[in-house]
Amino acid sequence: MKVKNLSATDFHSELEKIEPKFGHILLDVVEEQESLNCLFYDLDLGERQLYRLPIVSKIDILQKLEERWPVLADTSAPDFHPLTEDEMNLGPYHPLFRGDLRPVVTLQGESIKQLRFETGFRHLGLENRLLKEGLQQSAFLISHLSPSHAPTANILWCMGVESLVQVEIPARAKVIRMLFLELARIRGHLSFFRRMTELLGLDVLASRCLEQAAFLRKLYIDYGLSYAHPYLCVPGGLYKDMPDSWPLELKAYLHVLEKFLYDLSKELFSSHFVNERTSLAPISGREALESSVSGPLIRSCGIRWDNRKNIPYYFYDQLDFEIPLGSKGTAYERLLVRHEELLQSISILRQIFNFIPVSENNAEVILAGNSSSYVALEAPEGELGIYLSQGNGVLQNVKIRSSAKAHLHFATKHSCGLNLSDFLVNYCSYNISASELDC
Known about the structure:
alpha+beta; Cytochrome-c3 Hydrogenase, chain B; globular; single chain; three-stranded antiparallel β-sheet; 16 helices
């Protein structure tokens, strides 16, 4: 940048701006000498005498600098350059996006002027593969849709097939599926809090979230399921029934989880730093409805919508639980809503323990005729639905509807104007499952 002529004092101030970067400045202050005479101008008198350096004042040094490197005067040049727009890739290798998504941001200074997301890094082709596999094989295959809150997709597939053929499953299968739906909600929200606390620099809380995930992993293993892709149920009932001692382990874990949630609220929501860092990107209820968002995102705007209450399935209509709501729709209120949902899931699990029916045989499921159905359940991120159709006893169409696509469009729209660090916090608060974008 070209600037106008500087005085010795102004030149000194400009010189000190670059001094920390270089540590010291080498100056040739004696023109008469042939060899280079290096002067560290910040040395004191004793150090100059020790190294036999000439004793010269800073004013003399500045005058010599102005003579040797004169600053060109240019009245046509502006005092500062306008901010230029730069395009930057934040993924897919950013820890927040985990190789599944690449946001490309156009920056103007530190603010985001334009944002677009590039998907397809984890294209599973699930919808086409589910058509080729059998009903029971597809029940396991679809668990790859949402590994962060498995076995939600496994249960969703079984619900869709049972609705397609109009079959009623045993009550015990419904209750056990409800148990794992709430455990999946706990697992998904704990994963969300781990990523958010890591992003905010709260490493102790992030490690404690990992500890809770380890307790959950033990519960899955003791039940006889894989933690990554649990094969819990098949169309018509259960693939594995619940062990007799497993409910006692789950009850003990709920006490541990409840204590952790109390500590989490005490350390996270009482922090002024967290409040200031996450009180951004407010959303109105009207915008949320127009964008078809769901889950904690729409409930943080004050809209009372939860598939477990509004379109109840299994025995949710017989349970007593609340729907946490926000008012402004900020990232901070999304944290509050998810924390309260964890407490409500604990309450739901304890109520389910009171009426676990005896074991029954699975119902028989056979595709026949021409029909179609759409079912949806309340996943941790929002509504997760599936559309199935059959013709002449053959499955003809499979379409998965995830809340991730609506939430990603919403994030694209409402991230412009934020700086880069605020964008990462805002995106994390949406809790978008990138694997559900490429199904």
